[in-house]
């Protein structure tokens, strides 16, 4: 009957084992599961904090990116404005240089025309004087007498008028 003792349930042993099981469950809950829950909760809080920090860093990075893009756009627009101002200044300068060159060319042309006119007058006067003196010599030789200054001037003027008309 020994086999029967192994299979039979002894009520006092069964109650002691159940009490032992409850005590073990209580002790595991009290001393093992409590700290594990605290560690798990602490890790969960750390993970949540890290996620919040990551989201905050992402938001800051997005804001910095937006600020960077804005500053680049501002720099580009400022550079375009500077280039436009430089182009306008260069065009104005070129126009001013061309205007001055045209004025100088006109002044040179006027001066050259005045110089030519003056030289022409000088040459005409020299020719008049030379022709006058030659005419006086010829007239003196032809007439055989001296011509007065007044007659001389009249002859020269008549000659020049006739020569000027033929031009």
Give the key terms.
167 residues, mainly alpha, 94% helix
Strand fraction? under 5%
**What coarse outline follows from CA principal-axis ratios?**
rod-shaped
**Mean pLDDT across all amino acids:** 85
What pattern of helices and strands is seen along the backbone? HHH
What count of helical segments does DSSP give? Answer: 3
- The Cα radius of gyration reads 63 Å
Total count of domains: 1
The largest sheet, given as strand count, sense and whether it forms a barrel, is: none
Strand tally: 0
Low-confidence stretches: none
Describe this structure as you would to a colleague:
The protein is mainly alpha-helical. It has one domain. The protein has three helices and no strands. The longest helix has 133 residues. The chain is rod-shaped, with a radius of gyration of 63 Å. The termini are far apart. The mean pLDDT is 85.
Entry summary:
The protein is mainly alpha-helical and about 170 residues long.
Could you outline the blueprint of secondary structure elements for this entry?
Blueprint: H1 2-7, H2 11-143, H3 149-166
């Amino acid at each position: 009957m020994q086999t029967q003792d192994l299979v039979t349930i002894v009520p006092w042993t069964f109650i002691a084992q159940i009490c032992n099981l409850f005590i073990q469950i209580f002790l595991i809950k009290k001393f093992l599961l409590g700290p594990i829950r605290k560690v798990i909760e602490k890790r969960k809080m750390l993970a949540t904090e890290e996620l919040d920090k990551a989201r905050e860093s992402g938001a800051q990075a997005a804001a910095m990116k937006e600020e960077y893009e804005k500053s680049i756009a501002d720099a580009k627009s400022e550079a375009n404005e500077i280039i436009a101002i430089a182009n306008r200044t260069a065009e104005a300068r070129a126009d001013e240089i061309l205007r001055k060159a045209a004025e100088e060319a006109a002044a040179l042309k006027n001066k050259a025309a005045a110089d030519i006119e003056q030289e022409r007058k000088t040459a005409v006067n020299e020719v008049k004087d030379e022709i006058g003196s030659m005419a006086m010599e010829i007239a003196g030789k032809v007439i055989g007498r001296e011509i007065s200054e007044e007659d001389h001037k009249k002859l020269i003027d008549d000659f020049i008028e006739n020569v000027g008309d033929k031009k």
